[in-house]
Amino acid sequence: MREIVHRVVPSRSRAAEAPITSQEAWGSLRGHAVHRAHEALDEVPGLLRGLKTFLLVGSITMAAFAAAMVVVLWRAAR
């Protein structure tokens, strides 16, 4: 059976902290947004490689399917 452990957290005094200004808040948000945008852009080349492979396989498969359908219909019509 697990034992419940309670931690005692020291209280922080609000007077010791400087208030956050709106410019600091917007700067922090802007920095976070830039970081996330760079992370998203780093994934684009891998996504494009996967898309290229998907389109290549799809185009070969569709051409083979169309050729097979022509052969089947040609034989069925004879």
Would you kindly provide a written description of the structure presented here, covering whatever features stand out?
With 78 residues, the chain is an all-alpha fold. The chain is built from 2 helices and no strands. The longest helix has 34 residues, at 44-77. The N and C termini lie far apart (79 Å). The model has no long low-confidence stretch (mean pLDDT 86).
Roughly how many Å apart are the termini? 79 Å
Secondary-structure-based class equals mainly alpha
Q: How do the SSEs run, as a string of H and E?
A: HH
Approximate strand percentage: under 5%
Q: How much helical structure, as a percent, in the residues?
A: over 70%
Shape: elongated
Topology (elements, then pairings):
Blueprint: H1 22-42, H2 44-77
Question: TL;DR?
Answer:
71% of the residues lie in helices and 0% in strands. With 78 residues, the chain is mainly α.
Features of the shown structure:
single chain; 78 residues; mainly alpha; 2 helices
